[in-house]
Amino acid sequence: MDVLTQNFSLYGKGFLGTVQLTVYASLLALALGILMAAFRVAPVASLRAFGTAWVTVLRNTPLTLLFFAVMLGLPRFGLVLPFTVFAVIALGCYTSAFICEAVRAGINTVPVGQGEAARSLGMTFDQTLGAVVLPQAFRTVIPPIGSTLIALAKNSAIAGSFSVTELLGTYKPLNERGYSIIWSFVWIAVGYLIITLTISAIFAVLERRWGVPR
Question: Of 139, 146, 188, 189, whose CB is crowded by the most CB atoms within 10 A?
Answer without folding.
Answer: 188
